[in-house]
Amino acid sequence: MSQQQNLQNPKIQIPTTSAMTDQDYITDMLSTEKYITVSYSIAEHEASHEAYYQTIHQANNEASQMQRSLYETMFRKGLYGLTPTQDTQIQQSVQQHTTDKAQLPYQ
Description:
The chain has 107 residues and is mostly helical. The protein has a domain at 10-82. The protein has helices at 22-45, 50-76, 87-102. Helix 1 runs antiparallel to helix 2 (50-76). The two termini are 39 Å apart. 6% of the residues are buried. The model has no long low-confidence stretch (mean pLDDT 86). Pfam families: Coat_F. InterPro entries: Spore_coat_CotF-like (IPR012851).
């Protein structure tokens, strides 16, 4: 079996310090944007008025775009890597979801 390599750009140099680094800040920003988009999504779907829905929808789109931009920056700077998934892991996941779906009362 061949060993798959992680997909990652060369990492930028970050000084070792007890203070927050650029990587800490951008990681915190990405985590915050992820939290915000989940929260906006819930609020969007539960909005009781069309104008309110449209305002939240626009804010959610902007937060999603910011989240994507932060991810792309982190990936480009080597701060975010991807690990390839083996075909067997994908097949196992599909099988598990198929089994779970079959147990739902409504299909």
